[in-house]
Amino acid sequence: MQRKEILVQKRNYILDTSPELTQKIRLVEKYRPDGTVNPAYPSRLLPYGQMPKSLFLIGEFPDPSGKTAAIVGARSCSAYGKAEARRFAAELASSGVQIISGMASGIDAWAQKGALDVRGRTFSVLGCGVNVCYPRENYSLYREIAEGHGGLISEFAPDALPISWHFPIRNRIISALADIVLVVEARLKSGSLITADYALDQGKTVYAVPGRNDDPLSQGCNRLIAQGAGIATSPEVLLEELGLAAPESKKREKQERQLPPEWKKSEEFRKIFTGLNSREISLADLQEKTGIEMPQLCRVLMQLCMSGYAEEAAPGYYRKTY
């Protein structure tokens, strides 16, 4: 009974009025009473016009001395898009990059989950009040961030509902808080392209994950690339842009750490696992890449698939699932 009183659950959002959460809400004004800039206000927003004069916050703002990357994309995304968002975010967060997004369905949520997978920090700029979780299926993600793994940020007052016009305008804050912006899957009229436009106006570097020309979910990304956006073929591309590129030895070590201990002793398992990524690869190409005989390659792939480390994306094509 008490739970119903503190969680107002509607069809598409949850209003959390629990005392535990309410006491965490802070109002951060841009200016102090004497007219000087409040040092608690995010310094990353100061260079740009049309930024809010006050922000509501649960948790923290991104550390101004650290690197930040915004990862945004389609709400109705593909399995490939989810995997890429999670992979890019996890790799960046593993190198200390703070992940900014909007906690929307799809790419936003998977990117923020990827950051939390590796105990990284992630920050949600919401299109509603900070005590409102939208969409409701992201409530566990919302609570995890609220409990000390980053911050929930909004220019809208607590209890403000997720109204459609809130979302395009909050995108200017997402891009302003980020050093770089990555778009993972976007249709030609995606709201993610609004974030990319804000980023370009703010002088930020924009990257996009390329996709098939016949895939509507890739058309927005492909257009960004045609207009000069960077091509995000791997997280290392973004790390290099941020001045955080890891040596090859560390990349291999990070990949191999994900294998069970008994598999790490097998050169074949290591070669095949590191030869896979979240984009599907054919058996023939994987054999050429690893130099392992086809029967043994198929046996190891079967074990990786049965253990949940890989999957057959299409007949004869495999990819990692982490």
UniProtKB/TrEMBL annotation:
Signal peptide: none annotated. This is DNA-protecting protein DprA. GO terms for biological process: DNA-mediated transformation. It comes from the Bacteria. PANTHER family: PROTEIN SMF. NCBIfam families: dprA (TIGR00732). Residues 38-242 form the Smf/DprA SLOG domain. Belongs to the DprA/Smf family. Transmembrane segments: none annotated. It comes from Bilifractor porci.
